[in-house]
Amino acid sequence: MMEHEVNMMERVQKVIANAGVTSRRKAEKLIEEGRVKVNGKVIRELGVKVSPQKDTVEVDGIPLDKEEPVYFLFYKPKQVISAVQDDRGRKVVTDYFKEVEQRIFPVGRLDYETSGLLLLTNDGEFANLMMHPKNKINKTYIAKVKGKPGKDELKALQRGLPIEGKKTAPAKARIKSANIKTNSSIVELVIHEGRNQQVRKMFDAIGHPVMKLKREKYSFLTLENLKPGDKRPLKPIEVKRLIDSAVT
Fold first, then answer.
1. Tens-of-pLDDT digits for all 248 residues of the chain?
2. Which of 65, 111, 204, 230 is catalytic?
3. What is the pTM of this model?
4. Could you confirm whether 244 is annotated as catalytic?
5. CATH, domain range 138-218
6. Which CA distances in Å does 11 have to 18, 29, 143?
7. Exposed e or buried b for every residue in 82-116, given b needs 16+ CB within 10 A?
8. Class assignment of domain 71-133+221-247?
9. Domain ranges of the chain
10. Rounded-to-integer distance, Cα 238 and Cα 39, Å
11. How far apart are CA 31 and CA 44, in angstroms?
12. Domain with residues 2-63, CATH architecture
């Protein structure tokens, strides 16, 4: 019994990061600044371990994991940062959730110029499950690209190609339409990875840069009946289905 309890102990900064409050590195800074309490006492040492189930961890006086979990589907517009704050004062996704009392954060990210489907939650465990590469959750993107990729180039996307020294996982790619007049085409790409600006880099690698990019689907979820800036809560059955798809 004691051995099991020891195994459940985790460093405070990891518990804070898993709760979705901030990154582990920033959590370490919060600890050093004396802004973190464990069971009512301020801690300043990074090596402190706690039990997420038994100990009360507070950041700036707010206890972790005391909120009811919430889950949202959001249609992110272009030129919005997938973060809870931006040091340059740009618009962030949580600006669209002012009425939500819970401390929510985006699950993964879409880059500044990319629009489309993004999940937000205050459930760190759910977010980690969605983002872990081994769970292979499909994300469907629609890209307007320069020119028209040929068969060999589409096959390269499908097989995987080296991006910054690491090969991408197999993907699905198909051309939906092409416009000779504008020398552009619309390509659907389905990937399950989430590397930084991966879709743009994949198209750059085959010589067809992205002009416009939108994420249309996340697993089975779509943007149906939503406009940029719109959101809706996920239904409990949708949350369960996402979790089931990640753990099976």
1. 333 333 467 889 888 887 767 888 888 999 999 999 999 999 998 889 987 767 889 898 888 766 688 999 999 999 999 998 888 989 999 999 999 988 899 999 999 999 999 999 988 888 888 988 788 899 999 999 999 999 999 999 999 999 999 999 999 999 999 999 999 999 999 999 988 899 999 999 999 999 999 999 999 999 999 999 999 999 999 999 999 988 76
2. 111
3. 0.75
4. no
5. 3.30.70.1560
6. 11, 14, 41
7. bebeeeeeeebbbebbeeeeebbbbbebbeeebbb
8. alpha beta
9. 2-63, 71-133+221-247, 138-218
10. 35
11. 5
12. Roll (3.10)
Which helix H or strand E contains 167, and what residues bound it? Answer: strand 166-167
Fill in the DSSP letter of residue 69. P
**Fold matches, 2-63 and 138-218:** no
DSSP per position, 177-193: EEETTTTEEEEEEEE--
DSSP letter (8 states) at residue 67: S
Tell the residue number behind the tokens 């097989």, with chain if given: 159
Helix (H, G, I), strand (E, B) or coil at 157: helix
Amino acid, res. 239: V
Q: Which residue has the tokens 């038994």?
A: 54
Q: In the chain, which residue ranges form alpha helices assigned H by DSSP?
A: 2-7, 12-18, 24-32, 124-131, 151-159, 198-205, 236-247
